[in-house]
Design goal:
Low-confidence stretches: 1-7
CATH superfamily of the largest domain: Aminoglycoside phosphotransferase (APH), C-terminal lobe
Number of helices: 17
CATH topology of the largest domain: Aminoglycoside 3'-phosphotransferase, Chain: A, domain 2
Strand content: 15-25%
Largest sheet: 6 strands, antiparallel
CATH architecture of the largest domain: Alpha-Beta Complex
Mean pLDDT: 92
CATH class of the largest domain: Alpha Beta
């Protein structure tokens, strides 16, 4: 018998007995003395011994159907098929929960099959990215790893041209609006829902043709579908993407920036402004997808709206008053977040210059989260663009004979073009390069004038010994500069520089605050 919940979610079976059974350490043998559990609105995971057991919830949503045990078993098998390509040694198989002749429950064995479990190798609950974020254990390196993992995930997904066009996104916007309206006024204010709907469709009208263009050019691929910190775990020091959606192809064959937008939005909602900026910019260095920037705010707003109504649905199902209040507050928070993404912002152009080791890239990284559209300013580094021209990834070192006057010209020309593209999309840009030649400084200033945006130029300076030490000790940096290269740089006549001069040899926080004060952020 189906139990309707607001005509949105239906609970089709009572799984309380199974949950109680799976929470008991004895279920898993004598070597297990503790079971950890965490749950979402459509599955629960039990971590016991060397394995984790995932129970699909007996629910039916408009976009998901786990209404029968047969469908849940098929979903378990399909999830293994989909996820084993990216984490081949993580998924073990499917196990049954059965009722034996004496009426007790058992993992496997003979008896009446009650439900199915997806069995995975154990992962520590504390190594899920949401917990690592909560404990302050995520840093720049982990964001670099995550960005490269996600970029590689999409690179290995085949492109499709018959899914996720403008009509698909329009349908999602219509559905979001309809579901959000069902929770007025119990959860949402009518003014907020109306404002979001109007802003979303205005934005959609501006980018609908770009959506079609991206579909035709192969930017629609099989994504993850549920890419958030609950579904990313640190395993052997590297992030792995877990729980890719298997139950609805319409949720996974999407524009890859729409898939990524869920992760960016999730990180924003957790207050991780610095980390999301680092991850986003490093991802863009690999993905080379600045052409998609105009659609990103709408994608993030749409993802936040979905989270808003999912929390509202969970609120309606929750019987515990405290938990219900938290879910209601979360739903309202995500709706406000969705609105914030569609608020127009005035972009600016910032240029950070200086010799190798001067601190210009560090400054760019630390200031970017506070500038412009979420997830912060777009950082365009000449070190990365030079390697793009040469057809190699940012982490590949170039030989010294690759650094020619012609390549320098091509690099700065590309910097100007990419900057124009990002500014036109409404994003603030930080152009990061040596800018040793006056014509390059004039060139980036002209880009700002042509775009009609404010320009701020900074020259980062430090004593030679400080810059040399930084060059020698830095890690995971796309720059190929050595101390010998630095010594050659400082001999150059750079001409007259009118940009703001910043001494970076002091305390990092003081230096960053100087720049932020000039920028007014």
């Amino acid at each position: 018998m189906y139990v309707a919940l607001g005509a949105i979610c239906m609970i089709t079976e009572d799984q309380k007995e199974i949950v109680k059974f799976l929470m008991c350490p004895k279920t898993y043998g004598d070597n297990v003395d503790k079971v950890d559990m965490f749950e979402t609105h459509y599955y629960t995971v039990f971590i016991a011994g060397d394995y984790a057991y995932k129970l699909k919830s007996a629910v039916k949503y408009p976009y998901l159907d786990y209404s029968t045990k047969k469908k849940r078993r098929m979903a378990c098998a399909r999830e293994i098929t989909i996820n084993k390509e990216t984490v081949p040694n993580f998924y073990v198989g499917v196990e049954s929960v059965v009722r034996t002749k004496d009426g007790s429950l058992s993992l496997g064995g003979k008896g009446e099959e009650l439900d199915s479990l997806l069995v995975m190798k154990r992962f520590e609950k504390n190594n899920l990215f949401n917990k690592l974020a909560e404990d302050g254990k995520l840093d720049r390196d982990s964001m670099y790893d995550l960005a490269e993992t996600v970029s590689n995930y999409y690179d290995h997904s085949g492109a499709v041209t018959d899914r996720f066009g403008s009509g698909t996104l329009c349908g999602i916007l219509v559905e979001n609006d309809a579901i959000l309206h069902r929770f007025i006024p119990r959860v949402f204010d009518v003014e907020d829902v109306t404002a979001l709907s109007e802003a979303s469709f205005r934005y959609f009208d501006k980018v609908s043709s770009l959506l079609e263009e991206r579909r035709k050019k192969g930017r629609v691929r099989r994504g993850h579908g549920d890419l958030n910190f609950n579904n990313i775990s640190m395993v052997d020091g590297k992030p792995i993407l877990m729980n890719a959606i298997e139950f609805n192809d319409n949720l996974v064959f999407v524009d890859i920036l729409y898939d990524l937008a869920f992760l960016l939005m999730d990180m924003e909602s957790l207050g991780l402004k610095r980390l999301v900026s680092i991850m986003f910019n490093h991802y863009m260095d690999y993905a080379k997808d600045l052409g998609g920037l105009p659609v990103l705010p709408l994608f993030m707003a749409t993802r936040a709206a979905i989270k808003a109504h999912i929390n509202a649905q969970m609120w309606q199902m929750q019987k515990n008053p405290a938990d219900a209040a938290e879910l209601r507050n979360n739903a309202r928070k995500f709706l406000k977040l969705a609105l914030s993404y569609l608020e127009p912002k005035k972009p600016i152009l910032v240029a950070t210059s200086g010799f190798s080791g001067s601190g210009k890239s560090r400054m760019s990284r630390e200031v970017a989260p506070y500038l412009g559209e979420a997830p912060g300013a777009v950082i365009l580094r000449t070190d990365v663009l030079r390697k793009r021209i040469k057809g190699v990834l940012p982490n590949v070192k170039l030989s010294s004979d690759s650094y020619t006057e012609e390549l320098d010209k091509q690099t700065y020309d590309l910097l100007f073009e990419e900057t124009k593209k990002a500014l036109k999309a409404g994003y603030t840009v930080i152009a990061d390069g040596i800018f040793a030649r006056e014509k390059d400084r004039n060139g980036i200033e002209q880009v700002a004038k042509d775009a009609g945006v404010p320009f701020y130029g900074f020259l980062m300076e430090a004593p030679l010994e400080v810059m040399a030490e930084r060059v020698e000790t830095r890690k995971r940096n796309p720059s190929d500069a050595t101390v010998k290269v630095l010594e050659q740089q400082i001999k150059k006549d750079v001409g007259s520089i009118t940009w703001n001069r910043i001494d970076t040899s002091g305390e990092r926080s003081e230096t960053i605050n100087k720049v932020r004060k000039i920028l007014g952020v």
